[in-house]
Design brief:
- The complex is a heterotrimer of chains A (220), B (193) and C (469).
- Chain A has 10 helices and no strands.
- With 220 residues, chain A is an all-alpha fold.
- In chain A, helix 1 packs antiparallel against helix 5 and helix 2 runs parallel beside helix 5.
- Chain B has one domain.
- In chain C, strand 19 and strand 20 form a beta hairpin.
- The chains are: A mainly alpha (220), B mainly alpha (193), C alpha/beta (469).
- The interface between A and B is large, with 78 and 76 residues.
Chain lengths: 220, 193, 469
C-alpha cells in the first residue's frame, strides 16, 4: 500500500479515536494491528517496543483517573490505558515500515499530494542533518563547559547558540540546493514517477467505512 | 532565459523554510535529550496519580519551535509550520508516538500561532509572545480534555494541570523566547532582507 | 558558450565596500587562478559570479554582471546552473540528499532532464570522477576529497560552461587534490572555462592560463613578474625543528586508541603520550583525522581503546570537569563565544578562570593592545572580522587556565603580523602557567622553531618526529 494512503487512513482513525470513549474499540484496533504485524513479520525488538512503550504513559493516565477522576472515571481510566496502546500500535503500522518507505512517502507528497517541493526538500535535507544536529548540541554544551559555564535548558544562551547554527546551516543548505539547480516553484522531472494504485484507494475506503460501521453499536 | 523576477513568487522562501526546519530540529533535540529525565519524573509521579503533571510541566519546551519560528520569520503560518516540521521530523526518525505526534504538533502549532493572529500579526515582540503562550495553553488544554481524557478529571486537578501548563508555556514559550529574541537581535546575526 | 560579462562590479554591505570596480575577462575555454589574502573578497566575488549573492547575502551590487544580457542573480537557478557551476569550500553542509546517486538525481531532476536520461548521466559523471564504488554510500561518511569529487560530478552532470571553485581543497588531502586538479583540467579541455580560488599555488604552473589578484576588493590580472613569483612559490614545506621526546612525565596517554569515521579507519591502535608542560605540533595531510582526534580528547567523538588524563580514564570523567582540564580552541571561533560584547566575554572569562589573579585588568589591556583588539570592547563578538574573532577566542581560552589546551588551526586566516603576535602571546601565557599545549597547524613557516615536539599523523598512525637530543 502506498505509504501516504496508509498514513492518511491511520491519521483519520487516530483523530476519531481521540473522541471515542470505548475500551472495546481500542482493543479491537490493537488486535487488528497485532494481526497485521504478524503478516509484516516484525522482529522481537519491535514487539518489545510495542508492548513496553505505552505502559508508562498508559499507567500514568490510569492512576490519575482512578484517583482524581469524576463521573464515569473508572471507565475512562481503562479507555485511556487502552487508547495509548491503540494509538501506538496503529501508528506503528506506518512508522515501523518507514525506514524502507521514507523516500516513497516524500516522493508521493511531492508528486501526488502536490506539496510544495520547497517543503519536501527542506524536510529531506534536514533529515540528513539529524546526526549533525545531535553532535552540534553536544558541542555547544561542551564548548560552554570549557569556559566554566554549563548551559541548561532554561538558559537562553543554549537556544541562541542552537538558532545561530540553524541560521548558518540553513543558509549553507539553501545555497547548496540552489547551486544544484533547485528553483522554488519550478517544474521538476522525476526519475521514478509515483502512481497510487486504484486498489490502494479501494482498500483505504473499505477500512474507513468498516471502521465507521464498527462504531455504530454501543461498546463498553 | 527565464528570470526569477518574472516568475511566479512563492509565499515561502526556501531559506525561511530551511531555517524553520532547522530550528524545529534543534529544539526537538534539546528536549529529546531530556527524554530519560522526563520518563523518570513521570514514572515517579505515576503511583500518586500525578503523572500528567510531568507532561504539562515540560509542554512549553516541546512547543518552543512554534513561537521561535514566528519571531524569526514573522509571517502568518510560521508558527504552525515550525511545530508541524518538528512533529514531522520526530515521526520520520521513528519517534514513539508516530502519527499521533503530527496531530498534536498541528494543534500545538495552531495554539501558538493563534496568539500572533489575535494581534493581527503585527506584534512579534513580548506582547505577541505572551499572548501566544496564553492561547497555546488554552487550545492545547482543550485538546487534552479529549485526547488525554482530561475531561474526566476532578475540577481541582484540572485547575492544577492547567496552571502547570500555563506556567510552563509562560516560561518556555514566553520569558525564554523573549530572552532569546533579545540575544538574536543584539547579535545582528539574522539579516532581514 | 553564453556571454559572461563582469564589468565595473562594486559590492558593499551597509556602505562598507567589499569589492571595488571589479572587471574580469575570462577567455573562453581558459583555466584561471584567483589569488589574494584571506578577507580580500575572493569568496564574495565567486558567489556573486555564481548568482548566489546578493540573493543570499543582501548588500548593494552595482555594475554589470550579466549572462547573455540577463542579470546573473535573476536567472532561474535551473537554467543558470547549466551555464555556471560552483564548488564550495566545504561541501558537507551543502548536500541535500543522503547518497551521491540521490544528490545527482536531485540535481538532474531540478534541471528537468528527461527521466530516461538521468541514470546514464549520473553513472557517467560519477565514473568520470572515479567514485562509482561510492554511488550509494552515505555522503556524510565520505572524506573531504571524496565529497569534492561528488560535488564536481554534479557540475559534470549539469555540463556547466563555467566552473567556479572557492578554495575547494581546504579539506582535501594531497593525493586527492592532485586528482581533482587533473579532473578539472580535463573538464576545461572540453571547452569549459574555469576560475579557481586557492591559497596553495602548487601544481598549477603547467596548466593555468591567467592569474587574477584580488587585494582589498580590487582586482587586477597578474603581470609577468607577479605571475613568475606566484608560480615559483616554493612547494617544499618548511622543516620544523624539534627533538624526540625524552621525558617521562606525561599528561595525556593514549592506549590502543582507534578512531573511525563510519567505515573509514582514521587512527589505528595508537599508543603514545603527550608530555606535560610541552608544546606539541601535530601535522598531517588534510582530512587525515587531526580534528577528529582533538574531538575524541574532549569527549566529543567516540573512540575505542583508552585515553587517560593524568592516569584517569577520561571515559569515566564527567564532561564538565574533564573539559576544564583539557580544553579545545575550536577552528570555528564563533562556536566558543558565550556573551555578546567583547567586554562581556572578557568579564566572563575573568570570572570563570581557574587562576583569576593572573588576569587583572592591566594584564588584559596590555594583551588586547598586543593583539590589536584594543578599542573593540563594546563591539558585538559576532560582528568582528574573522581575524579579530580568532584572536579574541584564543585569548578567552588562554584565560580559562586549563592545564591542557588544544588548538585547531589557530593561525588560519590571520595575516603574518597577527600570527607572530598571537604566537608570542600564547607562548608567554602558557609558559607562565606551565600549560601543556597541542596544536594542529598548516602554517609551518611561522612556527619552525616554536615547538618542543612534533607528531606526524599519516596513514592512520601518529609518530613523533625530530632529532635525538
Amino acid at each position: 500500500m502506498n505509504p501516504l494512503i496508509k498514513f492518511g487512513t491511520i491519521m483519520i482513525i487516530a483523530l476519531e479515536l481521540t473522541f471515542i470513549k470505548s475500551v472495546t474499540i481500542n482493543l479491537i484496533l490493537v488486535c487488528i494491528s497485532a494481526l497485521l504485524y504478524l503478516v509484516l513479520k516484525i522482529n522481537w525488538r519491535q514487539w518489545l517496543w510495542l508492548v513496553l512503550l505505552p505502559i508508562l504513559p498508559g499507567l500514568g493516565s490510569w492512576f490519575s483517573l482512578m484517583y482524581f477522576g469524576t463521573g464515569d472515571h473508572v471507565h475512562m481510566a481503562w479507555v485511556m490505558l487502552t487508547r495509548v496502546f491503540a494509538y501506538l500500535w496503529l501508528g506503528g503500522l506506518f512508522t515501523l515500515k518507514l525506514t524502507d518507505e521514507r523516500t516513497l512517502f516524500l516522493e508521493t507528497l511531492a508528486q501526488r499530494a502536490h506539496l510544495s517541493t520547497t517543503f519536501v526538500y527542506a524536510l529531506v535535507g534536514v533529515l540528513n542533518f539529524i546526526p549533525a544536529v545531535n553532535q552540534q548540541i553536544k558541542t555547544i554544551r561542551i564548548a560552554a563547559q570549557m569556559r566554566g559555564n554549563t548551559l541548561h535548558i532554561w538558559h537562553p544562551q543554549l537556544y541562541f547558540k542552537a538558532i545561530l547554527s540553524a541560521i548558518r546551516w540553513s543558509q549553507n543548505l539553501a545555497e547548496g540546493m540552489v547551486s544544484h539547480g533547485f528553483t522554488e516553484g519550478a517544474r521538476r522531472t522525476h526519475l521514478t514517477v509515483v502512481h497510487i494504485k486504484k486498489h490502494d484507494w479501494i482498500i483505504a475506503t473499505i477500512i474507513l467505512v468498516a471502521f465507521q460501521i464498527l462504531l455504530l453499536p454501543h461498546w463498553y | 532565459m527565464q528570470t526569477v523576477s518574472k516568475s511566479k513568487r512563492t509565499r515561502w522562501a526556501l531559506r525561511d523554510v530551511l531555517l524553520l526546519a532547522f530550528v524545529a530540529v534543534f529544539i526537538g533535540f534539546i528536549f529529546w535529550i531530556l527524554g530519560p529525565v522526563y520518563n523518570i519524573l513521570s514514572a515517579a509521579l505515576t503511583p500518586f496519580g500525578l503523572a500528567p503533571f510531568a507532561n504539562d510541566m515540560i509542554l512549553g519546551g516541546w512547543m518552543m519551535a512554534a513561537p521561535l519560528a514566528s519571531i524569526l520569520i514573522r509571517q502568518a503560518g510560521a508558527g504552525i509550520l515550525g511545530e508541524v516540521f518538528a512533529a514531522a521530523v520526530e515521526m520520520l526518525i521513528g519517534g514513539q508516538w508516530g502519527v499521533a505526534t503530527l496531530l498534536s504538533g498541528l494543534v500545538q502549532g495552531i495554539g501558538s500561532e493563534a496568539g500572533f493572529a489575535l494581534l493581527g500579526y503585527k506584534d512579534w515582540h513580548w506582547r505577541g509572545i505572551f499572548v501566544s503562550a496564553f492561547t497555546g495553553a488554552v487550545i492545547t488544554f482543550v485538546w487534552s480534555l479529549f485526547r488525554d481524557g482530561y475531561a474526566s478529571y476532578h475540577i481541582g486537578l484540572l485547575i492544577g494541570l492547567f496552571l502547570t501548563r500555563f506556567v510552563s508555556l509562560l516560561f518556555f514559550g514566553g520569558v525564554l523566547v523573549i530572552a532569546i529574541q533579545k540575544l538574536i537581535e543584539k547579535s545582528g546575526v539574522l539579516k532581514r532582507g | 558558450m553564453a556571454n559572461f560579462k563582469i564589468d565595473q562590479v562594486t559590492f558593499a554591505y551597509n556602505d562598507h565596500p567589499i569589492l571595488k570596480n571589479v572587471t574580469l575577462q575570462l577567455k573562453p575555454g581558459s583555466f584561471n587562478l584567483l589569488v589574494g589574502p584571506s578577507g580580500s573578497g575572493k569568496s564574495t566575488l565567486l558567489k556573486l559570479l555564481s548568482g548566489l549573492y546578493p540573493t543570499f547575502s543582501g548588500g548593494q551590487l552595482s555594475g554589470t554582471l550579466t549572462l547573455d544580457g540577463y542579470s546573473v542573480d535573476d536567472i532561474v537557478p535551473f537554467q543558470r546552473v547549466t551555464h555556471i557551476g560552483y564548488l564550495f569550500q566545504n561541501p558537507s553542509r551543502q548536500f541535500v540528499m543522503e547518497t551521491p546517486f540521490e544528490e545527482l538525481q536531485f540535481t538532474l531532476e531540478n534541471l528537468q532532464i528527461d527521466a530516461n536520461e538521468i541514470p546514464n548521466r549520473i553513472e557517467k559523471a560519477i565514473t568520470q570522477v572515479g567514485m562509482q564504488d561510492f554511488m550509494f554510500h552515505d555522503l556524510m561518511t565520505l572524506s573531504g576529497g571524496e565529497k569534492q569529487k561528488i560535488a564536481l560530478a554534479a557540475v559534470l552532470a549539469a555540463d556547466s560552461d563555467y566552473l567556479l571553485l572557492d578554495e575547494p581543497f581546504a579539506n582535501v588531502d594531497l593525493a586527492a587534490r592532485l586528482d581533482l586538479i587533473q579532473l578539472i583540467k580535463k573538464y576545461q579541455l572540453k571547452g569549459k572555462t574555469v576560475l579557481i580560488a586557492d591559497h596553495d599555488w602548487s601544481g598549477y604552473a603547467d596548466i593555468i592560463d591567467d592569474i587574477f589578484i584580488l587585494s582589498v576588493g580590487e582586482l587586477h590580472q597578474a603581470n609577468a613578474t607577479e605571475r613568475t613569483h606566484i608560480l615559483s612559490q616554493s612547494t617544499i614545506t618548511p622543516k620544523v625543528v624539534t627533538s624526540l621526546p625524552m621525558q617521562t612525565e606525561s599528561i595525556i596517554d593514549l592506549s590502543s586508541v582507534q578512531i573511525k569515521n563510519g567505515e573509514r579507519l582514521l587512527l589505528d591502535s595508537a599508543t603514545l603520550s603527550f608530555f606535560k608542560g610541552k608544546k606539541t605540533l601535530i601535522t598531517g595531510p588534510n582530512g587525515v583525522g587531526k580534528s577528529t582526534l582533538f574531538n575524541a580528547l574532549v569527549k566529543l567523538y567516540p573512540y575505542s581503546g583508552k585515553i587517560f588524563f593524568q592516569s584517569q580514564d577520561i571515559a569515566k570523567r564527567k564532561n564538565k570537569y574533564h573539559v576544564r582540564d583539557v580544553a579545545l580552541v575550536f577552528q570555528n571561533a564563533e562556536q566558543q563565544f558565550l556573551a555578546m560584547t567583547v567586554e562581556e566575554e572578557l568579564k566572563q572569562a575573568q570570572k570563570t578562570s581557574l587562576q583569576p589573579k593572573l588576569w587583572s585588568n592591566e594584564q588584559l589591556s596590555s594583551l588586547l593592545k598586543r593583539l590589536d583588539l584594543a578599542g573593540l570592547e563594546n563591539h558585538i563578538v559576532y560582528q568582528l572580522s574573522g581575524g579579530q574573532q580568532k584572536k579574541l577566542q584564543v585569548l578567552l581560552m588562554l584565560m580559562t587556565n586549563s592545564p591542557v589546551l588544544l588548538f585547531d588551526e589557530p593561525l588560519a586566516g590571520l595575516d603574518s603580523l597577527s600570527q607572530q603576535n598571537l604566537l608570542a602571546v600564547i607562548d608567554e601565557v602558557t609558559r607562565q602557567q606551565n600549560q601543556t599545549i597541542i596544536v594542529i597547524s598548516h602554517q609551518l613557516h611561522v612556527v619552525t622553531h616554536w615547538f618542543d615536539y612534533h607528531l606526524s599523523f599519516d596513514h592512520q598512525q601518529l609518530i613523533y618526529r625530530g632529532t635525538k637530543s
